[in-house]
Write a sequence for this structure.
């Protein structure tokens, strides 16, 4: 019976359009940077605050394990593929009405796919967004990283605002009105 219910209702997979869109935007921006910039070239966008700076990231966030000798490429790829599989399962199981959770899963999934695509094609991730202030630089990042960060923030928000409780209350109110 539970499998039939799962098949009949709309699932969070409806949010995959966002995943596809974000992967396309991520890959197009990375292709543009790789074609238009020399490695380590930097162009000022907002003076004293924001540049486009083309770099290769062989590690993970903040270049973690970037000097690992190559094994980290496959390590981070396997982790991202596993996380992507879990997120797809969760999207499939979630009702479409859990929009905050589905949105967060779709964004994290897009970031994971975007960076895995880079690792598979190039052996590194293309980063180019460079935020800085008075000599302090945040590590360069890309659209995929932004999607992961926004998705994680939404997931934290979801921890404080639980859709399931809202849906349970609606269901109880509807039963009480019968």
């Amino acid at each position: 019976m539970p499998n039939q219910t799962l098949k009949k209702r709309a699932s969070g997979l409806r949010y995959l359009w966002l995943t596809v869109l974000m992967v396309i935007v991520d890959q197009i921006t990375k292709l543009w940077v790789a074609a238009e910039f020399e490695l380590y070239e930097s162009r000022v966008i907002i003076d004293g605050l924001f540049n486009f700076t083309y770099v290769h990231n062989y590690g993970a966030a903040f270049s973690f394990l970037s000097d690992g000798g190559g094994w980290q490429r496959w390590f981070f790829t396997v982790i991202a593929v596993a996380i992507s599989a879990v997120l797809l399962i969760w999207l499939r199981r979630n009702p479409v009405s859990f929009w905050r959770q589905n949105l967060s899963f779709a964004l994290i999934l897009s970031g994971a796919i975007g960076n895995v695509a880079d690792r598979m094609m190039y052996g590194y991730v293309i980063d180019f967004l460079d935020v800085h202030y008075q000599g302090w630089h945040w590590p360069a990042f890309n659209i995929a990283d932004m999607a992961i960060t926004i998705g994680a923030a939404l997931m934290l928000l979801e921890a404080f605002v639980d859709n399931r409780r809202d849906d349970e209350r609606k269901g109880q109110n509807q039963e009480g009105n019968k």
About this structure: Residues 16-163 form one domain. The first strand starts at residue 42 and ends at 46.
